[in-house]
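Extended Data, panel c. Modelled sequence:
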Amino acid sequence: MLKYTGKYWAVITPLIKKSMNRYYGSDFINETVKKAKPIYREMLRETDDVGADNPMAKNVYECFVFLAIWKAAEGRITADDLRKITKDVLSFPLLKAMGLVINANSPAAVKRASEKMRVNQAWLDAHPQYKATSWDFNFDETLHRDGFYYHFTHCPLNDYAREHGMIDILPVMCEIDHMTAALMHATLHREQTLATGGTKCDYWFYGDKLKNPQ
């Protein structure tokens, strides 16, 4: 069980509703969101505890908002619909402003982003009780000259989706990684994901202005 907090629901749901207004009527939207909140709570109760103060836990809290609304819609929100909604949410001005703060074409910004991931790893090293349930970090600074690289062989979102019948929709959530990379003026090159049957989720980020990244 992951400890409930309402802050992610409070921030993300209005953005999702704003997007849904483009595709659905208000009655459906209000009914779906109302049904989704207890589903969101139940999903947090059902998932493995990764540590509420784990800096990676926000990935569960945020992803479950989208998945709870998708589940509450009982088929009326398709995978393509959910993909449109996530793109809308990531395109709102406040989130697009991230690009003014983080620019992956700057070596200093790339270094900061890489160091942030290592901070996440350091948290997990300091809390070994969560290593069996959280993401495992695997860094390789020799693999690429440009940007930075790491991969996971374990993802709690993948575990939950497979156990609770959501594995067909989870790849839509994985696509958010490419959208958030774009907000940072980065390209995410990825060979595979756990959600699509791979052995790992790999992340190679580099500036989107690079013509021949290595």
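The chain has a mean pLDDT of 93. This feature is highlighted in the accompanying rendering.
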